[in-house]
Amino acid sequence: MATAVEEAARDADIAVLPVGSFEQHGGHLPLSTDTLIACIIARQVADTYNLLLLPPVTISCSHEHAGWRGTVSISAGTLYAVVNDIAASLRISGVPKLLIVSGHGGNYLLAHIAQEASVQGPDVAVFPDRRDWQQARVAAGLDVLDAHEDMHGGELETSILLHAMPEVVRDTYRTADHVDPAGHAHFLTTGLRAYTTSGILGRPSLATADKGAKVLAELTARAAVHLDLLRGETRTAPSAD
To answer: What is the rounded distance in angstroms from the CA atom of residue 196 to the CA atom of residue 145?
Structure first.
């Protein structure tokens, strides 16, 4: 962990903020899964590009998981205020740009924070975006390329943790698959309980540590595009081929 003196010497123009959640991930992944994944990606990006790494926001908007033991949520308004306060504080301390690394797909308002903050120029970005995740799936050779099918506690999330933190993954991931043929189209209204009793939507049995390593490598490479945009520069996104 860096000191203030070390951060002054680094003189980073971009801070990296992992935003996760504290919500059920079935019986094989911990409640902190989204926060752990956000931190794994954020640390890799910060180390690779020499950026200021912030501690994570660990509880966020997990209302679709309400009722499962252990899940804790805050309101969208609270999360909005927290992230905006962090960005404002960073600007005062001389770090003008913020890359939000989102580990929880349910934090939809992060996109609105980035939009509002960047009206007069790119100041906040959310990473990974939908295309980043999709290209990472392709580059890693995941068996399930449909993110909606492999939505929660499935091949992608389990693979990342098998690679980076295998000690937190229970062996029950091998038998935890649950696929919803109806497509869980209305889960924002009904919650996930209408579509899964285990809390899983995906195929964790397909997960491997090698796939997780490749996902992380692809995401780290793709982060460069978002960092350049924050700095007012452009580059072509890396290909997954």
So the answer is: 20
SS3 state at 141: coil
Pairing type for strands 124-127 and 14-19 reads unpaired
Give which of 227, 215, 111, 110 is closest to 237, Cα–Cα. Answer: 227
Structural domain containing residue 114: 4-228
Start-to-end CA span in the chain (Å):
36
Under the banding of pLDDT at 50, 70 and 90, the label for residue 240 is very low
Residue 241 placed within a domain: no
Distance of CA 51 to the CA centre of its chain: 17
Identify the bridge partners of residue 18 per DSSP, sorted by sequence position.
101
Sign, CA torsion 59/60/62/63: positive
CB 122, CB 229: distance < 8 Å: yes
- Residues 8 and 77: beta-carbon distance below 8 Å: no
Residue 137 three-state SS: helix
pLDDT exceeds 90 at position 239: no
Q: pLDDT confidence of 211, banded at 50, 70, 90?
A: very high
Report which residue type is found at 92. Answer: I
Q: What angle do CA 157, 188, 165 make, to 5 degrees?
A: 15
Domain total of the chain: 1
Residue 38 has pLDDT above 80, yes or no: yes
* CATH code where residue 128 lies: 3.40.50.10310
Q: Is residue 237 part of a domain?
A: no
